[in-house]
Amino acid sequence: MRKRPRNIPYDHEWHRLARRFLKVFPLCSVRGCSRPAQHVDHIVTVRAAPERRLDWTNLQALCHRHHSRLTHAYDQGRLTGACDEDGFPVDPNHPWAQPTQREAIAAANRAPVADPETAARLKRGYVRGERR
Asked: How far apart are CA 124 and CA 117, in angstroms?
């Protein structure tokens, strides 16, 4: 049997950590949800911060429904619709955040890509019930 390379994010070490995390946090972290947690979600993705792969402060316990919803939204680039208190987009890639009209048009025509920092902040806010 071949060993998997150590750089794969979901190796034996990860699964052991996830089981321990779910024992400590058995319920979904989303405010108002009392379902049992089934998934351990990285707030900042492994791709964006591989060094935080096993960092407990970068993890949240989620039920299947909320994990699927957040993952799908992130994969589709839809975590980019939040605004600050003044109504300006928090996503630096949003067309309104561009300095010129030409760059705004180019941004509007690009496929949406969630900035990892912005996405992590929005994920934390969603879980805490801080929806804007």
From this structure: 11
pLDDT tens per residue across span 69-78: 887 777 666 6
Structure tokens belonging to residue 8: 């794969």
Length of the chain counted residue by residue: 132
SS3 content of the chain, % helix, strand, coil (to 5): 45, 10, 45
C-alpha 120: how far from its chain's center?
5
Q: Which helix (H) or strand (E) holds 125?
A: helix 116-128
Distance of CA 100 to the CA centre of its chain: 29
Distance CA 64, CA 23 (A): 16
pLDDT tens sequence across 35-63: 999 999 988 888 888 899 999 999 999 99
